[in-house]
Write a structure and sequence with these properties.
- The chain is mostly helical.
- The strands form two sheets. It has a three-stranded antiparallel sheet. A two-stranded antiparallel sheet has the order 4-5.
- The longest helix is centred in the N-terminal third of the chain and has 54 residues.
- It binds zinc ion.
- Zinc ion binds next to helix 8.
Length: about 350
């Protein structure tokens, strides 16, 4: 196998581009949320004044029925719901645009990554062959499914944020002597629930853009299965990002997987990639000696870190177990089902590692 440094550069550039698309969508949405709240703030200030005056006069927080009779409050809720509907629409649009960019960038990069693993004389031909297998109709299916998934995710966003705001209003805030302090707390509670929509939008953007990348990547690999021997899990184990890579992703780095296996199944906000592994040249009928592949070796990359950096990745106890040979790299990652995300590999908890180590002592 000859995963060249050129192939690794292409992968790294692609992951940066894909991450950039979701970051940009998130920045754009955050700005829209701020603008929307700025527009709603005066309406809420008025509504909360009515509420606080009522609470002061009655010595208690109003009941849901009493809240429903407050005209200013109902107007603020209607305006806020309108605003949330618009924001949900903006989320669908921004995340879809980012995911579709990710699909296009991934397809181009994957073709280049496969091509880069062959001798120079074979590349032009391979590029044509690999590109020809990427069917526009299949990409249309991927794009349509991506859009549908994003729409399904964003649909409840507005209603959920609206419910959260209503819950805050019913719950109320502690009454005190200072009406402006009560008002400030009430507005903050509503604003917090409103911003919950942005938190949700951010998660959708990260998840869906990453999934669009994974789907497109897997598609190009599947379409070229006759050229490939599987895929390699690539984590960031060199350079400045290496200390931000978790023990699980370190452990998965360099592992080889069957093409039929989805992935890389890294955890939320994971930065790992799957690298197509082109078959040995001679197996493809190319009678040329092949260079060794350049995927950084897990152990060598870890040994290259300072003690302090190794500690930052593993934590003291995990590092001690690994150094003593009481746990192996493969022990560090564990496959977990996560209903809120998807099945993924996560760091095995220290207490489980201790149990493994105890058995070996
Ligand atoms: Zn990780």
């Amino acid at each position: 196998m000859a995963v060249t440094s050129r192939a690794l550069q292409l992968i790294s550039a692609m992951r940066t581009a894909v991450g950039g698309y979701s970051d940009e969508a998130i920045r754009d949405l955050a700005a829209q949320w701020v603008t929307a709240w700025d527009q709603l703030a005066p309406t809420w200030a008025q509504a909360v004044d009515v509420l606080v005056a009522w609470a002061a006069a009655n010595g208690r927080w109003p009941t849901p029925i009493e809240l429903a009779r407050m005209q200013a409050l109902q107007q603020a809720l209607v305006d806020t719901d309108d605003s949330l509907d618009e924001l949900a629409g903006a989320t669908t649009a921004a995340v879809t645009a980012a995911a579709l960019l990710a699909v296009t960038a991934t397809v181009a990069a994957e073709v280049a990554v496969i091509t880069a693993q062959l001798p120079a004389a074979y590349r032009a031909d391979t590029r044509r062959r690999v590109s020809a297998r990427v069917l526009p109709t299949s990409l249309d299916v991927i794009r349509t499914r991506t859009e549908q998934a994003i729409t399904a995710q964003t649909r409840p966003l507005s209603a959920d944020a609206s419910k959260a705001i209503r819950r805050e209003l019913v719950r109320g805030v502690a009454l005190g002597r200072d009406p402006s302090e009560i008002a400030r707390r009430a507005v903050a509670a509503v604003g917090g629930a409103f911003d919950g929509g942005l938190t949700r939008a951010t998660t959708i953007a990260r998840t869906e853009v990453l999934d669009a990348y994974r789907t497109a990547s897997r598609y190009v690999h599947d379409a070229n299965a006759d050229l490939l021997d599987g895929w390699v899990w690539l984590a960031t184990v060199t350079g400045r990002g290496a200390t931000r890579t978790c023990p699980s992703c370190w452990a998965m780095h360099g592992t080889i997987h069957d093409l039929s296996e989805a992935g890389p199944l890294d955890h939320q906000q994971g930065r790992c990639a799957r690298v197509a592994l082109v078959k040995p040249w001679r197996a493809l009928g190319i009678d040329v000696d092949e260079p060794a592949h350049t995927i950084p070796d897990r152990q060598a990359a870890f040994d290259a870190l300072t003690d302090r950096q190794q500690n930052a990745v593993m934590g003291t106890n995990r590092l001690a177990l690994l150094r003593a040979g009481l746990v192996d790299w493969d022990d560090l990652a564990v496959r977990r089902d996560n209903p809120a995300w998807r099945t993924s590999y996560v760091p095995r908890p220290l207490r489980d590692l201790n149990r493994i180590a105890d058995r070996r002592r």
